[in-house]
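Mods, move this if it's the wrong board.
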Amino acid sequence: MRRTEYMVKGCDPATLTVRQLMEDAVVTCSPQASGFDIARILSEWNFGSVPIVDEDKTLMGLVSESDLLDAVIAGKDLRTIKASDLMTKQVVTASEDTTLVDLATLFQDRYLIRVPVVNGRKLVGIVARRDIVFGYVKARSDYWP
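Not the wrong board. Structure tokens:
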């Protein structure tokens, strides 16, 4: 859950960090997961991507809807192809200390929708454009039902 959801009074949005904006309960998959299992997770949870992590939560890559579509176009069977063969390995990430403004700039400059949040190489959360907007509104609000 985002820490901004617990805010009871407004603040300067420029003081918000990724640590406050991110979701810390992240659905992940292993590198051995099938493309079909990933497609099912994305469909059921209404996600656009899923981080791929090893046993100790080290971020290995990310599989997006686009990666799955590329595999289908290439004639690959999602039931047999593995996440390790589908995933984008060079993933843009953020740290927990990244500010809202720096994060918004990263999203706009790179045309991103969401990025994994890491501490070193360990996945600790995920943050989306929607989280930035929510955090900004929450920070500027004097009252939130």
